[in-house]
């Protein structure tokens, strides 16, 4: 038995006890779930929002246009500004790159969301 049980939210009695997943107050009969008290903690897990160069929210499967010419190792031309990239996938950032996609003529690439614009 833990002696750090919370006070009853109804009558502030300190005699609440655990019954399964619930806390029960013998003084007023109130039953409540201690889980509910931790709701605020969940908001930290809110989904990360990825935005393009002008602030549009990007989503998996979006088509974007590259806003500036990007140098690519092994490709003399690089990715030209205005290149359309279909079916992007948002990923956890890798060196600041948070879009996984296939660039026409180049292949699978990681891009920065700050260098594209939603088409
Ligand atoms: Zn109570």
UniProtKB/TrEMBL annotation:
Coiled coil regions in record: none
Classification via SUPFAM superfamilies: Prokaryotic SH3-related domain, Zinc beta-ribbon
Residue span(s) of domain Protein YjdM C-terminal: 50-119
Family of the protein in this entry: Belongs to the YjdM family.
Protein name: Alkylphosphonate utilization protein
Domain of life per record: Bacteria
Domain Protein YjdM N-terminal: residue ranges: 4-33
């Amino acid at each position: 038995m833990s002696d750090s049980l919370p006070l009853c939210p109804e009558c502030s009695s300190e005699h609440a006890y655990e019954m399964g997943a619930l806390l029960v107050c013998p003084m007023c009969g109130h039953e409540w779930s201690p889980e509910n008290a931790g709701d605020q903690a969940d908001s930290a897990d809110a989904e990360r929002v990825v935005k393009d160069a002008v602030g549009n929210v990007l989503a998996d499967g979006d088509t974007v246009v590259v806003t500036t010419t990007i140098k690519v190792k092994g490709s003399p031309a690089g990715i030209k500004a205005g290149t359309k990239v279909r079916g992007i996938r948002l990923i956890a950032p890798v060196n600041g790159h948070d879009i996984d996609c296939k660039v026409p003529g180049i292949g699978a690439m990681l891009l920065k969301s700050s260098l594209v614009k939603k088409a």
